[in-house]
Design goal:
CATH class: Alpha Beta
Helix content: 25-40%
Distance between the termini: 34 Å
CATH topology: YbaK protein
CATH architecture: Alpha-Beta Complex
Radius of gyration: 14 Å
Structural class: alpha/beta
Largest sheet: 8 strands, mixed
Length: 153
């Protein structure tokens, strides 16, 4: 099953009803391209980033204009983290870089929703490939990911 199909199937089984928007493949693989395709500012694009530690991994969802502070991640999770390599991203999440969705993740990985997401009534997360987006509110994101709301940027 293609990653975007896995996301759609996951969303069909949720109480929260979210819709996947599809573009030509690659049209939304960076924050800037996604923002341009959606007609919003880059900050409104929700980046889902994988960080790998010695003992654990964590997915962080943050606004497109934010940078994750790995020292803050270490304070919360007690592990030293680094940004994942492309092959690790696909192996651990089941999504290619540029299309990582914060839900329907292949392996169980703790998910952190950074407080920066609260700045917008709606953000746009990738939906499994570099040509997709899901408009989602902070509350919906917390519900479908079962993530933790923390300050990690």
């Amino acid at each position: 099953m293609k990653p975007i199909e896995r996301v759609k199937e996951f969303l069909n089984n949720q109480k929260v009803k979210l819709e996947v928007i599809e573009f030509p493949e690659g049209a939304t693989e960076t924050c800037e391209l996604a923002a341009q395709a959606l007609g919003v500012e880059p900050a409104q694009i929700a980046k889902t980033l994988l960080f790998v530690g010695k003992k654990s991994n964590v997915l962080v969802v943050t606004c497109g204009d934010e940078k994750v502070d790995t020292k803050k991640l270490k304070n919360y999770f007690g592990d030293k983290f680094r940004f994942a390599r492309a092959e690790e991203v696909e192996e651990l999440t089941g999504f290619p870089p540029g299309g990582v969705c914060p839900f329907a993740v292949k392996n169980k990985i703790p998910i952190v929703i950074d407080k920066s997401i609260k700045r917008f009534p709606v953000v746009y997360a990738a939906a499994g490939n570099a040509g997709s987006a899901v408009p989602v509110t902070l509350e919906q994101l917390l519900e479908v990911t079962k993530g933790q709301y923390l300050d990690v940027c």
